[in-house]
């Protein structure tokens, strides 16, 4: 993943040399869908049934526990199909890992005298006197309101970690397994991402599950309608800001979540500046 010209040449035993060649081939495979509503529609409309069944159908069924025809079009729209040789998942200009890893990055972000870290504490167990005037809540929005309208559906993951006595397990960082007969969806080998050099290697198998910590909001119209009921309750709360995948029930990538957080901060900073200025003027 993703499908590119190398994929097409290997799968169909072709010798496509240019982007134009690949685009023409994909156009010939495409099966136009009059009204694109589901994830199946997106892929079949762009690349046809064969590539859809080979790469998307089984993987989506495993990942979401649903057929692509039952999921919103946004799910498979996230996975690009390319006509060039670029095999990166994302096309962002800058792609990097934190120099010392994500754990150290968050430790440094939290290392501030105004921040108290309380792990293993449930928000709902806190007394009103223990709450700040403003809370940023990134947990499941339905849980915050006691599942008043019923639980929102989520998908989870179970991980199996292995350390192997070999230098390398696979040729790239992540290999996806679209075949429904394979119980896991992908294997990640971390040294490709970190640049570490070592005689052993660490890998992780990912198994989608309906049970466990909520990871993925499930994009379906009926789920979005249920979320809107919770969003209406959230909009009535001036003391809580709901953010993140779970707080806003959206399938965000990491960069999108960071962008959401920074945009929220800017709005808060502007609001506080206005309030501080108004208070200063009143005092004068």
From TrEMBL:
E.C. number: 5.4.99.9
Keyword vocabulary terms for this entry: Isomerase
GO molecular function terms attached to this record: flavin adenine dinucleotide binding; UDP-galactopyranose mutase activity
GO terms under cellular component: cytosol
Entry coiled-coil feature ranges: none
Residue ranges of domain UDP-galactopyranose mutase C-terminal in the record: 55-251
Gene3D superfamilies: NAD(P)-binding Rossmann-like Domain (3.40.50.720)
Top-level division of the source organism's lineage: Bacteria
Protein name as it appears in the record: UDP-galactopyranose mutase
Protein's organism: Rubellimicrobium mesophilum DSM 19309
Taxonomic classification: Bacteria, Pseudomonadati, Pseudomonadota, Alphaproteobacteria, Rhodobacterales
